[in-house]
Design a protein that fits this description.
By secondary structure, the protein is α/β, with parallel strands linked by helices. The protein is built from twelve helices and five strands. It has two domains: 73 residues, no CATH class; 158 residues, Nucleotidyltransferase, domain 5. It is 45% helix and 13% strand.
Amino acid sequence: MGLNTKTLCVIAKVSRAGYYKWLKDFDKPEKDHDDYLLIKEIFDKGKRKYGFRTVQMKLLEKKIVMNHKKIIRIMNKYHLISKIRRVNPYKAIMKKSLEHRTFENKLDRQFSQTEPGKVLCTDITYLPFKYRFVYLSVIKDIASREIVGWNLANHLEMDLVLQTIEDMKNKLSQSTLKDTMIHSDQGFHYTNPLYIEKVKQLKMIQSMSRKGNCIDNSPMESFFGHFKDDVDYKSCSTFEELRLQIDEYMKYYNQERQQWGLKKMTPVEYRNHLLSHT
């Protein structure tokens, strides 16, 4: 006499309800089978490189909506694993070399310099103008306090500081820039690979303030304070008019504005004075 269902279930250690459910579904096709075929077709066309997001997008192109969790489950169930591209070590090195980077604070608040053209500082300030902002980039000689480069722009793109370097090159002899220190904060422009490369090409030395410490670049803070007190930039009606007014002020500041801390000389006079005593 054959064993009854109850006894077989006890022997197999399964419930009777589970056995009947299995029996009911025994002749039915796998429930994920049709969806698996759709996913596999897309996966194979993509040379087994597609992840679940791409598969989902390709299904949508066929007007088939499928939950991403279901796609992940089916891909894992049927081992549809996308190939992971190996990192190219040379590309990784190149990418690393192009990352923004900071530099040591070599200036370290040594603001009492006596040799013109050897220690410069630079920064950017913004000016409210016609319901927007314009941006002034400046390079200053710490020893003479002379402005040796500047640029005005209505944007904050890298061209703002790169053109300031070009203006400095036109004012100073490129041969004297070798080993000249240029100090800045850790702003986006000065940690940018384009700026770093520009400074490197001139064989200059980069120095940076400590993060969030404006006193480390106080010569620039001082200049911008005087500039905003002296220049009525809000009265200008056009950008070009503002540029001309700033150009006139830079000439005035360098050649006519006497400073108590420079033995009552102008920056240009004090620069010549320092050079005559070196």
